[in-house]
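Budget justification aside, the reviewers requested a transparent look at the raw inputs and outputs of the sequence design task funded under Objective 1. We therefore reproduce one unedited record. The lines immediately below are the structure tokens for a 131-residue chain.
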């Protein structure tokens, strides 16, 4: 469900967090240093199920397709006190068209702010840009 005038989150971020955790596990850091990644377990993203992630991703793409630069849209899981997000795209002058989506995801009383890069592919579909 999308409501104009507030922001949200994405599936790729979960993969990014997993990649970060895997990279840290493979690095020659001490066990103590690796244990500092425990903070990732309590992020709002990790509380979303697959259906909620897809819904949020669809809301982000809808906001991008609307093309309203700087206009905030709201997303919610549809559950009282459930996960919610604010999605604000900021379009760039790049070719292909790109945007930085400011995503404010709240779940279980915790808010996570992210800047998520998206660009249109050659088929005109908005996709997450891997850094």
């Amino acid at each position: 469900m999308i409501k104009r005038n507030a922001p949200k989150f994405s599936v790729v971020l979960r993969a990014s967090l997993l990649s970060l955790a895997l990279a840290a596990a493979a690095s020659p850091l001490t066990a103590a240093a690796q244990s500092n990644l425990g903070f990732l377990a309590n992020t709002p993203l990790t509380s979303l199920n697959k259906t909620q992630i897809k819904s949020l991703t669809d809301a982000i793409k809808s906001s991008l397709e609307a093309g309203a630069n700087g206009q905030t849209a709201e997303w919610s899981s549809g559950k009282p006190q459930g996960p919610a997000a604010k999605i604000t795209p900021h379009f760039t002058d790049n070719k292909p068209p790109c945007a930085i989506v400011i995503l404010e995801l709240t779940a279980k009383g915790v808010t996570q702010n992210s800047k998520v890069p998206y660009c249109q592919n050659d088929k005109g579909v908005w996709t997450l840009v891997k850094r």
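The chain has one domain: 2-128. Residues 32 and 62 are 42 Å apart (CA to CA). Computational costs for records of this kind are itemized in the attached budget.
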